[in-house]
Amino acid sequence: MIQLVIQKELREIFRTAKVLWLLIGVLILMGLALYNGYSYYASHSALLRESQKVTYQQFISQGDKNPHLGAHFGFYAYKPTAELAMIDNGIEDYTGNSFYLEPHKRGVVRFREVTDATGIRSFGFFNVGYFSQFILPLFIFLIAHNIFSKEWENGTIKMILSSKATTRQIFMGKLLACLILVFALLVLLGIASLGLLSLGPDSIHLPRILGAYGLYWLGLTVFSLLITVIGVSVSLLTRNSSLSLVSLSGFWLLGVFLIPRLSSEVSKRMYPSITSLEFENTTFHDKEYGVDGEGTKDERRATLEKETLKKYGVTRLEDLPVFYIPITIEHFEESDGKVMDRAYEAVEMNEKKQNAVLLTSSVLSPFLAFRDFSMRMTATDMHTHNDFAEKAELHRRKVGVIVDDFYQKNTVAGNDFWKTVPQFAYTAPGISWRLASAAPAIAILFGWTLVSVLLMFFSYRKMTV
User: Cross-referenced InterPro entries, in alphabetical order (predicted)?
Assistant: First the structure.
């Protein structure tokens, strides 16, 4: 009997001209999202790979130079485009992708894509992630808003309830009819996305990302399920198509636009970010005057000189068997690095507090929870960005140590030495790291799933004439 109800509902859906045009529009938007995502992924991946290769080649072929001066020539460490950025590019356009490796200066990730974009980019980049988070829920609500209410409006509810089908069979049949249509779109979108990933420039890494890809689609399936259940339940509770559509559209607008923006402002007021001027002043003061009783830079320099003379058993710097300048460079690189580490840890801790406020607000919006889950599964979130910046900074210090050790005994470095400086390579953390990072968002999504199930049972009990 449930099968007959499903067939009846699907026939009615596809007989409606409005729904057919809506479905055609959604399929066109889906195709556009896939095209945009693949174009972004392919072009950015190739550009960053080539840029990394060129800047490193320039560094290792700079010729004979003083080691310290040659190190200042530097080269860029580029964050490779995430393999799943075709699905969701997250905050990639806002955080930048290049980190300059140069002695004494902690790099700042630069070249943000959004700085060269038009104002319309502030609405987001249209790809599979945007389609799934914004367009798909609205489509589900438009399909489900009158799945029950039309029976009251058409006066057919008594006839349906008096048929051989039980209320449970009627409810499940209508719900499953909507889910079949939604899941058909998801299957089509999933297969097309996987096909494009297999054709992409990094298809060799496809086996490595299949786990994250599968979890993303599992999360999207759960998200679509709870949105469909909410849509069907509201249609049954309101018994009026117009009221149902207004209610669901209002829920969509609140969850997609209003709550994220309000929570963003609240997080900034609760945990205001330090300004660049305050950051520079604080780090400059700590470098010059030290922290935790380290003493001023001059006092630390004098202490280093005494320790170095004692280490080599001489009384004058001129009698040292090594050059003293690279020793001081490496010493203050290490002490200044600790200052910068503390400063950036404070910034990242403040970011975590702001993100916690945003994530907490997602208890009012499943759309916000799924967006957070999506970015973390595709490795396009702030957590992954900070991991890249940390790994790039460690590589910068590693290069500094290599150069300073060479400089202690050599005043000229040629290409043979520059080639010993390793290239930077970054790989995003694996699936277990991403899952741990996404745990709060997953918990909230399951909470919303439970809410939708409770709403379904409540509406089912109201299924009477």
Answer: DUF3526
Tens-place pLDDT, residues 108-143? 776 665 454 444 445 567 899 999 999 999 999 999
pLDDT at residue 439 greater than cutoff 90: yes
Of 197, 233, 185, 3, the closest CA to residue 83 belongs to: 197
Mean pLDDT of 227-255: 94
d(C-alpha 318, C-alpha 308), whole Å: 12
Instruction: List the domain range (segments joined by +) for residue 129.
Output: 1-274+307-323+342-462
Residue-wise pLDDT tens digits, 34-77: 999 999 888 888 888 888 899 999 999 999 988 888 888 888 88
Q: pLDDT confidence of 370, banded at 50, 70, 90?
A: very high
Distances (CA, A) of 223 to 44, 174, 235, 285, 322: 29, 19, 19, 49, 64
Residue 247 structure tokens? 């209610």
- Residue 330 falls within a domain, yes or no? no
Residue 271 CA to residue 112 CA, distance in Å, equals 24
Over residues 256-263, the mean pLDDT reads: 92
- Mean pLDDT, rounded, for 278-304: 81
Q: To the nearest whole number, what is the mean pLDDT of the chain?
A: 87
> Is residue 336 assigned to a domain?
no
**Which one-letter amino acid corresponds to residue 360?**
T
10 in a domain, yes or no? Answer: yes
**337 within some domain:** no
Average of per-residue pLDDT across 241-257: 94
Nearest to 224 by CA among 6, 448, 31: 448
pLDDT at site 120: 47
The whole-model pTM stands at 0.87
